[in-house]
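INTERNAL AUDIT FORM
Audit reference: QA-55
Scope: verify that the stored structure record matches its stored sequence.
Auditor: D.O.
Record contents follow.
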Amino acid sequence: MRPIQGFALNMSRQYIALVVWAALLGPPAFGDAGKDVFATNCIPCHGQDGKAHTPAGRMLHAKDLTQSKLTDAEIRKQVTEGYKDQRGPVMPAFKDTLTSDQIEAVVAFVKSLRK
């Protein structure tokens, strides 16, 4: 299925706006690396609590991470390679943005959000 061009362009603009927003605000003062990586890269969609109750999270149908049952390997794969659904890319790949240590730290932090 081909994405609608206007939708794809609109999604690109929204993603760019979210990245700029996160860069301008910077990470909050958290103590560990996983929280810092999450704050810098994930909060715009998944929210600070991981429940995805953000405008971008609702629009993109982001996963509520507190309910996630993914294994470490599955979380690592989604962070590294991103996530696509029938509409196309939903979550960007972070393989070129984060180091392997940062990915491991965010995997551990994401798991800590579970209920």
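Auditor finding: record pair retrieved intact. The chain is about 55% helix and 5% strand.
Action required: none
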